């Protein structure tokens, strides 16, 4: 019998099904906080699966990471453009990349990864395993060399923080579903990103691995363990490779 890889992962971990966070509407209250200790990050990769709510064209904050010295230390935002694409922009130390199209606003699950490194301020955005955007110079301007992303900050899923850990605004909040968020303190290459997309956990340099135990979930955010809702857990999904062949 063949077991899809994503199922095997859960069997091996003796785990149940990793929940999907459901942000049903834009609000100034729904948030999920990552309860990890963040080191300083000279390089970073953040990946997740998400389902974009196509009902709104306003800018949504997928995640925001804030430190006392810089509220907009590290952020990912997006919106649906007029051609029907979701566009993402990365923010580091308050510097904003352009909004670039990453995937179709089709209501389906999509996988994304964003990477940034202190060296040259080089960044990239991947969607469904493909690199959609990359450039240098994000926050590498000014007389001083770019800084690492500061450690010990507050990482919030679904809201922009206008103060450390709070002051959320409905207009900038995320609406949709998100799961399998992982954060590494290095830049993952295309090959590793493909592994992550098909539900392998790349353990090396992992700062945060998706686990409901390490999340503070505000009470009106729903978590659904429905198997079919988790793209990494869909038994009919052929992109989850067979490993017991
Ligand atoms: C998110 O998941 C919920 C519950 O399964 C579903 O009803 C909703 O349509 C999904 N939202 C989006 C934006 O796809
Ligand atoms: C940074 O820029 C220098 C000079 O242009 C280049 O030689 C180097 O390869 C770049 N490093 C990265 C990681 O892109
Ligand atoms: C199948 O899983 C991949 C990740 O392994 C995901 O990107 C894709 O959206 C899933 N497809 C469906 C139809 O759920």
UniProtKB/TrEMBL annotation:
GO terms for molecular function: metal ion binding. GO terms for cellular component: extracellular region. It is found in: Secreted. Its cofactor is Ca(2+). SMART domains: PTX (SM00159). InterPro entries: ConA-like_dom_sf (IPR013320), Neuronal_Pentraxin_Related (IPR051360), PTX_dom (IPR001759). Binds 2 calcium ions per subunit. Belongs to the pentraxin family. Homopentamer. Pentaxin (or pentraxin) have a discoid arrangement of 5 non-covalently bound subunits. This is Pentraxin family member. It comes from Accipiter nisus.
